[in-house]
Amino acid sequence: QSVLTQPPSVSGAPGQRVTISCTGSSSNIGAGYDVHWYQQLPGTAPKLLIYGNNNRPSGVPDRFSGSKSGTSASLAITGLQAADEADYYCQSSDSSLSGNCVFGTGTKVTVL
Amino acid sequence: QVQLQESGPGLVKPSETLSLTCSVSGGSVNSNNYYWTWIRQPPGNGLERLEWIGYISYSGITKYNTALQSRVTISVDTSKNQFSLRLSSVTAADTAVYYCARAFDYFDSSGYNDRPCDFWGQGTLVTVSS
Q1: Residue A45 and residue B108: Cβ atoms within 8 Å?
Q2: Chain B residue with the nearest C-alpha to that of A107
Q3: Contacts of A89 in chain B (CB under 8 A)
Q4: Smallest CA–CA separation between A56 and chain B, in Å?
């Protein structure tokens, strides 16, 4: 079961900024584990978007940024584009699950 | 560029064992600092939860999801540059798209190794049904 909670959906007009929250607890994000973010376009595998809270792999535009504070993390998308319409998942680890990797519940981003 | 490709039966009967293989190209399963990982996602229309199954490290160490560990085995065949997943005693709840992925070492400021997945296979749907 997911121990990281995300809003089911967020939306914005092209060019706007949207943020996605990932709320955890003292056994995962709050314990010091970093957070990664993935983008999943329809019918495709997830793609690593942000790792270690705020690092972008090569090729990921700087419109995507991440942050972490306390027991939560956030993904921000600025200059929203139609191509950003996708599902987004956060990932961390959880000490109550023997350090197992855990994923968030996922957020659908809709570009209006 | 590393590429991963899952293969295996798309239909498995209840109580039997699911077996999948992931073929790796553009990189070696022997490479230091990588973890060869399986993740699954139930089929649906979106926002289906991702579930981490486990990994085998470059040194052969395995780590499994505690909820699945009594039924899971991940192994590696270095001669074929492949790694495999076996999940026993399957039920309908194991119906999912199964992804193989490569995770890498990433040590955070707390000293934890958070292992993000940077390359993924395209996924393969496995249905458990009689």
Answers
A1: no
A2: B47
A3: 50
A4: 11
Q: Which amino acid makes up residue B124? A: T
Residue A60 CA neighbour count, 13 Å, CB half: 21
In angstroms, rounded to a whole number, what is the distance separating the alpha carbons of residues A2 and A26? 15
- DSSP-derived secondary structure for B1-27: --EEEEES-SEE-TTS-EEEEEEEESS
Over residues A30-54, the pLDDT tens digits come to: 999 999 999 999 999 999 999 999 9
User: What one-letter code names the amino acid at A83?
Assistant: A
In total, chain A counts a number of residues equal to: 112
Handedness of CA A94, A100, A103, A105 (dihedral sign): negative
DSSP string covering A30-76, please? GGT---EEEEE-TTS--EEEEBTTTBPPTT--TTEEEEEETTEEEEE
DSSP string, B83-100: EEEEE-S--GGG-EEEEE
Least CB-CB distance to B52: which of A34, A38, A100? A100
Q: Which residue is closest to A52 within chain B, CA to CA?
A: B108
Task: Dump pLDDT digits (tens) for B103-121.
Answer: 998 888 888 888 999 999 9
